[in-house]
Design a protein that fits this description.
This protein is mainly α and 308 residues long. Among the domains are: 86 residues; 125 residues, hpI Integrase, Chain A. The chain is 53% helix and 5% strand. It has a 3-stranded antiparallel β-sheet with strand order 1-2-3, with no helix packed on it.
């Protein structure tokens, strides 16, 4: 992060960027978000060639809607993400009394068409798991999938797990996590997820009992001691979807699936809300309505009145 600001911006601005990213990491609890914001800020400052106090609304607009490294016109989602990143950076500078105004304040984000969320059924999950090979990498990825489905945690929360996050009390495994917004929690780790973890580690020649607390739970296939990266796991998952004959979906679809499976098992909205660590029942209701579709209980009476 210290090397983020391009030449000419000065050490003071490099420190401001670093402080912004440090605050973002503390508030969001997501290293993935911080890395994404760092890339976008580097690109913005590099392309404009200006210090943050020299940037105008026109500079931000031209960059946000401009063609990136891919050579393609950015989608509405990409433009929105760029504006959110740079806008929050300038808002931070205003809060710190570094700037008097936010050049993004008058810019509106484009409306992005959100694809309907996808949640796998129990049968589709079984097909997905059968498509994962019994190799060490496959056992690791299977354990990750099972953990995501049974805990409902987000990708970064699961992939960032270390040995020190686990504990057993009277034979019951527990895991500690840091959720969205920096919230912390501790929950029982479902036994199938725990058993899948141990099987995967054994395939890599590892055992929880002899591992150090800071070791990742999901070893890399390179044997470097680092954990599997988010990008590598997502790429593997796409191949498993293909082998299972399922439509491709992102890693977050497994969180959708976790919520859907809980509802299919008869849990209430309140129980699913606690399971997902949502901030309110309203958030969960919208989440489930988009996932399940909204039931229409009035059409039958209207159809009957019309003789249909």
């Amino acid at each position: 992060m210290r090397a983020l600001a391009p030449e000419g911006t000065g050490d003071a601005w490099a420190r401001a960027v670093y402080a912004f990213l440090a605050e973002k990491e503390k508030r969001s609890g997501s290293q993935r978000t911080v890395e994404s914001y760092a890339r976008m800020l580097r690109d913005f400052l590099g392309r404009t060639g200006k210090r943050p106090d020299e940037a105008t609304s026109q500079d931000v607009f031209a960059w946000a809607y401009g063609v990136g490294a891919s050579g393609r016109e950015p989608s509405a989602t990409t433009v929105g993400a760029r504006l959110a990143c740079v806008g929050s950076f300038f808002a931070f500078l205003v809060r710190m009394d570094v700037l008097a105004a936010n050049p993004c304040a008058q810019l509106q984000r484009p409306r992005a068409e959100r694809p309907p969320p996808r949640g796998l059924s129990a049968d589709e999950v079984r097909r997905l798991l059968r498509a994962i090979p019994g190799t060490p990498v496959g056992l690791r990825d299977r354990a990750i999938v099972v953990t995501l489905l049974l805990t409902g945690r987000r990708r970064a929360e699961v992939l960032g797990m270390t040995v020190g996050d686990l504990a057993c009390e009277r034979g019951v495994p527990y895991y500690a996590y840091r959720g969205k917004g920096g919230t912390r929690g501790r929950r029982e780790l479902p036994r199938p997820a725990y058993d899948a973890m141990r099987a995967a580690l054994a395939a890599f020649g590892k055992d929880l009992a002899t591992m150090s607390p800071d070791e990742p739970l999901w070893p890399s296939s390179h044997g470097t001691g680092a954990g599997v990266t988010s990008g590598v796991f997502a790429g593997n998952l796409r191949r498993y979807y293909d082998r299972a004959g399922l439509p491709r979906a992102g890693v977050h679809a497994l969180r959708h699936s976790a919520a859907k499976l809980r509802r299919d098992a008869g849990e209430s909205v309140e129980q699913v809300s606690r399971f997902l660590d949502h901030s309110s029942l309203a958030v969960t209701s919208v989440y489930l309505r988009r996932l399940e579709g909204e039931e229409d209980k009035g059409w039958a009476s209207v159809a009957e009145a019309l003789g249909l």
